[in-house]
Amino acid sequence: MVSLLAAGIEWGLAGAGIGAGIAAIGAGLGIGRIASSATESIARQPEAAGDVRGVTIITAAFIEGVCLFAVVVCMLITFKD
Amino acid sequence: MTLLAAGNVVHHLMDYPLLGRFFTAHHVLLLAVAGFMIWLFLWAAKGITTKPKKTGLLALLEVGLVFVRDDIVYPWLGEERGRRYLPLFWTIFFFILFSNVIGMTPFPLNPWHRTATGNLAVTGALAVIAFVTIQISGMKQHGWGNYWLHLVPHGVPKALWPMVWLIELVGLLTKPFALTVRLFANMTAGHAILAVLFGFLWGIAHYTNAAIGASATVATFAFMLFIMLFETLVALIQAYIFTVLTAIFTSLAVAEEH
Fold this sequence. Notes:
Order of helices and strands of chain B: HEEHHHHHH
CATH topology of chain A: F1FO ATP Synthase
Distance between the termini of chain B: 50 Å
Shape of chain B: globular
Number of strands of chain B: 2
Helix content of chain B: over 70%
Strand content of chain B: under 5%
Number of domains of chain A: 1
Shape of chain A: elongated
Largest sheet of chain B: 2 strands, antiparallel
Radius of gyration of chain A: 18 Å
Low-confidence stretches of chain B: 1-6
Structural class of chain A: mainly alpha
Mean pLDDT of chain A: 84
Oligomer: heterodimer
Number of strands of chain A: 0
CATH superfamily of chain A: F1F0 ATP synthase subunit C
Distance between the termini of chain A: 24 Å
Low-confidence stretches of chain A: none
Number of domains of chain B: 1
Strand content of chain A: under 5%
Order of helices and strands of chain A: HHH
CATH architecture of chain A: Up-down Bundle
Largest sheet of chain A: none
Radius of gyration of chain B: 22 Å
Largest interface: A-B, 10 and 12 residues
Number of helices of chain B: 7
Mean pLDDT of chain B: 86
């Protein structure tokens, strides 16, 4: 990391990359929690699998949206001129 | 394909002028999808009304149409209201789906290597359609001025009322923005990964060690196949999510306590 910066990669670009990584960690944790609860509830009540699947996709989309906001901010950093 | 493998990745995700100065690759793709949909659904409508037994492509289309009706629109909007909104949601769903899928098809079908939904202007326009639908249906349900006055839930203290109203207003505007960015980022990210993988092949082509080169080629193609399959799933899921979120927001806007 330090050597990369010493090699001349700009601080802002490095920050954008790190930010995208942190956003991915957060979204991964969130969607992972949803998926674990969803599999659990399907295992408890297999007849509700269809409903649970729909709700899972929708809530995962919301979390993904927050993550994508972060990625857009990172992209804006790289597009500065 | 050699076009994809060269140069900067971001460059290959951008729109470019195709015919003249203002007619770009995304315009061509959008018009192609629109024309294809008009042709397809005119054909399907004729087939559904004249043919007693539905087979092949017609049956497949019917599965998609019934899925949007029974799993997206009716559960959220109810049968009575849902029937009025159904053409809009069908159009949104199939337009996004076909745009996503045509963006993934290889050379003969899509020689421009672009996805129309991988453009902020396109997804933004779709989100504006969703936004207008949501607000107008809310205003028609609650009265044109009443809707805006009753953005704030009941029971909020008078002192906090202006602030909560402002937050609700920002919330209304955030929804279409999230729809825009979600669709755009999902389609762009998949194509960026594919472009990077093609870039790997470009690098391998200049490599001299045969053993490493061959294994790297196989690994790259295997990963590309995986990403292509994953992108097929994403293309379907994003069309579903855009449609279902529009339906949910519309149902929230027309609900008694919105």
